[in-house]
From TrEMBL:
Statement: the UniProt record of this protein carries the keyword Disulfide bond: yes
Listed SMART domains: CUB (SM00042)
Organism: Lottia gigantea (Giant owl limpet)
Name assigned to this protein: CUB domain-containing protein
Alphabetized Gene3D superfamilies for the sequence: Spermadhesin, CUB domain
Signal peptide: 1-23
Disulfide-bond pairs as recorded: 167-184, 186-195
Residue intervals of the CUB domain: 28-152
Span of domain EGF-like: 158-196
One Pfam entry name: CUB
Lineage summary: Eukaryota, Metazoa, Spiralia, Lophotrochozoa, Mollusca
InterPro entries hit by this protein: CUB_dom, EGF, Sperma_CUB_dom_sf
Record flagged with keyword Disulfide bond: yes
Key words of the record: Disulfide bond, EGF-like domain, Signal
Length: 217
């Protein structure tokens, strides 16, 4: 009887260790006060550590300006939440919250604007699971995100940017060094502004898999 109880205790302890044994990774996030920059998961594009809990706080102290996020290289289905605030000190000490939503690459966002002084990105993941964009032959080994932001005048138009979707899932969206221009960098054998042409779709050489006068995209 005693040995059975001891065995149950050992199993219980092992279950706890297996569930919470990995230390929570928090060496990420922070306050961002520059007028432009990039934000990425640790080790991008390689796997990030899990469990992980990060919060990036972009501060815009100018009432006449807005914050714009560009989802250049974003490969997540969930766990990425955006909120803006009138005042923000911490998750439990803030005022005037407006929840902007949970971002999913399926929604096809290439950018998003925030008009309050603080934009907070929360990224919390217990384990990888089935949370990343995956495309046959490509995008099988990218994890997390590498996105850019800028603080601009409210009347300024949002730049024409790109994303994995805009690049037909056949290339990466990249920004130049000053974040003023965005374009698709196509994978080998693919080309076009949106990487829409390649081995199976090249109308200039008489190749087009699309039917009913469809176009490569």
């Amino acid at each position: 009887m005693k040995s059975a109880l001891l065995l149950l205790k050992i199993i219980f302890v092992l279950l706890i260790i297996s569930d919470y044994g990995s230390a929570l990774y928090t060496n990420c996030g922070g306050l961002l006060e520059a007028e432009k920059g990039n934000i990425q998961t640790p080790n991008f594009p390689s796997p990030f550590p899990t469990p992980i809990n990060c919060a990036w706080v972009i501060h815009n102290p100018h009432p006449e300006k807005k914050i714009i996020l560009y989802f250049t290289q974003y490969f997540l289905k969930n766990s990425f939440h955006l909120s803006e605030y009138d005042e923000y000190i911490s998750e439990h000490d803030n005022k005037g919250i407006k929840y902007l939503g949970e971002m999913n690459y399926i929604n096809q966002f290439s950018s998003m604007a925030a008009y309050k002084p603080y934009l907070v990105i929360r990224f919390k993941v217990r384990d990888m699971g089935n949370m990343h964009l995956r495309v046959e032959e490509f995008l099988k080994d990218v994890y997390g995100f590498n996105i850019t932001y800028e603080v601009v005048n409210k009347e300024q138009n949002i730049k024409e940017a790109c994303s994995a979707h805009n690049c037909s899932f056949l290339g990466h969206c990249v920004a130049n060094s000053i974040f003023s221009d965005y374009k698709c960098q196509c994978f080998p054998t693919f080309f076009g502004d949106y990487c829409q042409y390649g081995p199976f779709c090249d109308p200039s050489n008489g190749k087009n898999m699309c039917q009913n006068d469809g176009q490569c995209r």
